[in-house]
């Protein structure tokens, strides 16, 4: 939804239930200028319960519901038409055939592909296919420190970033309060964290960071400028409970454009 909020064109592809939550999900996407391409199921819409501790860390309890029933044959190339960039979550590595169907459909339209590794458990479980998937399809790979530590080559952040950069044109390592590092075409850029406020809730911080960076990237902003937008998105969502940035936060982010 970040691209839509910032004035870009965005599309979401997924599956929800024929229920009130599914209808709310679709209407909210449209409200945020996102084109919903939603398949439906008689199973209930998936949901996530985020538990936030006093130090702003969160744990998530996930019910996949209808989303787990998404089929490879539903990934029609028409859903990816006109896409400049397709962003995929690493959790799709648990469903290899669905992931490959989405990757091939995206590449049919010559879209750039970004992959967020999502969780260290994803990396640990999917190492047997992860390297090949990144090498064959992915242009931008995004990892946080925990995910990087799950890589067999991890000794330090620099080495982890170098390893990721060997398989994708652009590799990103998010380091929380210490900012982030972006390797792009053999050049490494350090991105400082944005703001000095104390985090209330880190739910959605990684996703908002990635969305902000990708918005800048596909609009031909520099790596540093894209990183500043990313840091602002990640910072603003940490200042509120939940993963929705309020309007005044979006105004501060837009001032960076």
Concise account of the structure shown:
The chain has helices spanning 2-5, 20-31, 96-108, 120-137, 145-149, 157-165, 205-218, 223-238, 247-254; strands at residues 10-17, 34-41, 47-52, 58-63, 85-89, 112-116, 140-144, 170-174, 180-184, 187-191. The chain is α/β, with parallel strands linked by helices. A six-stranded mixed β-sheet has the order 5-6-7-8-9-10, with helices on both faces. Strands 1-2 form a two-stranded parallel ribbon. It has a two-stranded antiparallel ribbon with strand order 3-4.
Give your account of this protein's structure.
- By secondary structure, the chain is an alpha/beta fold.
- It has a single domain (68-254), classed as Ribokinase (UDP-N-acetylmuramoyl-L-alanine:D-glutamate ligase, 3-Layer(aba) Sandwich), CATH 3.40.1190.20.
- The chain has helices at 2-5, 20-31, 96-108, 120-137, 145-149, 157-165, 205-218, 223-238, 247-254, and strands spanning 10-17, 34-41, 47-52, 58-63, 85-89, 112-116, 140-144, 170-174, 180-184, 187-191.
- Strands 5-6-7-8-9-10 form a six-stranded mixed β-sheet, sandwiched between helices. Strands 1-2 form a two-stranded parallel ribbon.
Helix content: 25-40%
**What form results from the Cα inertia axes?**
globular
Predict the CATH topology.
UDP-N-acetylmuramoyl-L-alanine:D-glutamate ligase
Report the C-alpha radius of gyration, rounded. Answer: 18 Å
In angstroms, what separates the terminal alpha carbons?
A: 17 Å
Helices, by number, come to 9
Question: CATH architecture, please?
Answer: 3-Layer(aba) Sandwich
Give the biggest beta sheet: 6 strands, mixed
Number of DSSP strand runs:
10
CATH C-level class is Alpha Beta
Count of folded domains? 1
Strands of the widest sheet, in order across it, are 5-6-7-8-9-10
For this structure, what is the CATH homologous superfamily?
Ribokinase
Question: Which regions are unreliable across 5 or more consecutive residues at pLDDT < 50?
Answer: none
- Report the order of strands and helices: HEHEEEEHEHEHHEEEHHH
Structural class: alpha/beta
């Amino acid at each position: 939804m970040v691209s839509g909020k910032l004035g870009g064109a965005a599309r979401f592809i997924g599956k929800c239930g024929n229920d009130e939550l599914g209808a709310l999900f679709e209407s909210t996407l449209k409200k945020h200028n996102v084109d919903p391409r939603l398949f439906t199921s008689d199973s209930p819409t998936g949901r996530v319960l985020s538990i936030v501790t006093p130090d702003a860390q969160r744990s998530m309890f996930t019910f996949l519901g209808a989303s787990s029933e998404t089929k490879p044959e539903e990934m029609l190339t028409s859903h990816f038409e006109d896409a400049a960039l397709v962003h995929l979550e690493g959790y799709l590595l648990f469903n290899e055939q669905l992931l490959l169907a989405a990757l091939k459909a995206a590449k049919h339209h010559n879209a750039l592909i970004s992959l967020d590794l999502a969780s260290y458990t994803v990396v640990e479980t999917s190492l047997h296919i992860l390297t090949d998937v990144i090498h064959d399809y992915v242009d931008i790979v995004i990892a946080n420190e925990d995910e990087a530590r799950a890589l067999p080559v991890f000794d330090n952040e620099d080495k982890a970033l170098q390893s990721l950069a060997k398989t994708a044109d652009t590799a990103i390592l998010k380091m929380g309060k210490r900012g982030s590092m972006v390797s792009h075409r053999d050049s490494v850029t350090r991105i400082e964290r944005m703001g000095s406020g104390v985090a209330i809730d880190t739910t959605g911080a990684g996703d908002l960071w990635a969305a902000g960076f990708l918005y800048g990237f596909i609009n031909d902003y520099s790596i540093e400028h894209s990183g500043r937008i990313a840091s602002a998105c990640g910072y603003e969502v940490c200042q509120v409970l939940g993963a929705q940035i309020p309007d005044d936060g979006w105004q501060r982010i837009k001032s960076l454009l």
